[in-house]
Amino acid sequence: MARALDRVRRALGRTLAPTTAPDHLEIRDGGRTLFLPLTAIDHVDVAGHYLCIHVEREVHLLRLPMAELAERLGPAFVRTHRSALVRVDRIAAITDRRNGDGDVELIGGGRAPLSRSYRADVEARLAAAKR
């Protein structure tokens, strides 16, 4: 029995294709599943135990930890606050506050909070995107 399991494990190891990052996000909405393209997502914020996925004027709810979603979305998104993720190419401006925090203004008029602990990463990602 152990030899058979070893053979199966070896066979599966050879046949599994390398995984690639998905180009969409699956969101269950009642009895249907929405497949949102990652390029359509503007930003993500938190409402209680849910993540609010903002796509233009629509908001979709997803119950998932922010860190897990950030990993799924990949490098096109940057964390601006413990409760916010923003698509880098949707950032129009950063407004400052006295304490080092601020807001990220989005193309299309949205806003997301910017905490001082994430500020350096956001500015570095914006500088890299402009190159």
TrEMBL record:
Sequence ranges assigned to domain HTH LytTR-type in this UniProt record: 25-128
Protein name: LytR/AlgR family response regulator transcription factor
Ranges in a coiled coil: none
Protein source organism: Sphingoaurantiacus capsulatus
SMART domains, per the entry: LytTR (SM00850)
Signal peptide region: none
PANTHER family for the chain: STAGE 0 SPORULATION PROTEIN A HOMOLOG (PTHR37299:SF1), TRANSCRIPTIONAL REGULATOR-RELATED (PTHR37299)
InterPro entries from the UniProt entry: LytR-like, LytTR_DNA-bd_dom
Superkingdom to which the source organism belongs: Bacteria
